[in-house]
Write a structure and sequence with these properties.
89 residues
């Protein structure tokens, strides 16, 4: 089980955000997110948006810290990337 998280460098709604992904499955990602109290509404297409104040919680629970470009590469290599404006089927 490997879940990855990038640094909280994405602004939105008055705070900074990280993206959290799995390179195995969405089921794995949802289970991990649930285990750290991340609500399902934070899931967007292929990742969870994690506010900066929850970043350390995700890392402490086992999420691996990687850069944003590497996160997208791993997500794409796993066949789980769902870019905006593209059907998810």
């Amino acid at each position: 089980m490997t879940v990855y998280i990038d640094p909280p460098s994405w602004p939105g709604h008055g705070r900074m955000w990280s993206h959290m992904v799995s390179d195995v499955s969405f089921e794995e990602l949802h289970a991990f997110a649930e285990s750290i109290g991340c609500p399902r509404r934070a899931f967007e297409r292929d990742h969870y948006d994690v506010p900066s104040h929850r970043y350390a919680d995700a890392v402490a629970a086992g999420a691996v810290e990687i850069g944003s470009k590497e996160l997208v590469r791993r997500l794409t290599d796993a066949g789980l990337r769902r870019p905006k404006n593209r059907p998810s089927g």
